[in-house]
Amino acid sequence: MTGILRFPFSAQDASVPSAVFLDRDGTINRQVCGEYVTGWAGFRFMPGAIAALSALAPLPDRIIVISNQQSIGKGLMSVDELKDLTVRFVEEARREGARIDDVYYCPHLLEQGCACRKPRPGLLQRAAADWGLDLGCCSMIGDSLSDVLAAEAAGCAAILIGQESAGGRDAGARRWPLARDLGEAVQLILKTRAAPGRLAASAAAAE
Question: Using CA atoms, how far apart are residues 27 and 188, in angstroms rounded to an integer?
């Protein structure tokens, strides 16, 4: 089995220590329960996702997608097919004014117990090493507890979005800021630039 899969889309530059990490399925694109997105025909951006990505683009932060894709480990798609899908959604977002600098995937099965499958922090740590990031200056947005747990393990701030955030107050999620969708989460991050520490304050207020 291959290791971490990486598809960079910007020239590597270690001059910026911060990044916004984004989950893919359920955050950027629609996720169908019990199924995998195995090709461009099945890829659908979440409503407002491209606008949210475009709002992040002016920031100096690196914008990096971090995603578990055990469809590779299950043999449901090839690495080349995953690369094609990735290039297509990044280019589509770019045509609308968005920016994605890099994409990292864990291709392993859950039972393999790798260090890169969220909620373990391996993908974020690899991105930090590649880009010279200070993980304490980074934020993660995702729709699953595994996303925010990975961020916590890596030392990042995190925002939980979507249905798990709506019901997560009874599932131990209250220690993270909650948002309805990617757009709302991005607005919260933009506000932190004007008021550092706002993410922590939002998490405390949710308790």
Answer: 15
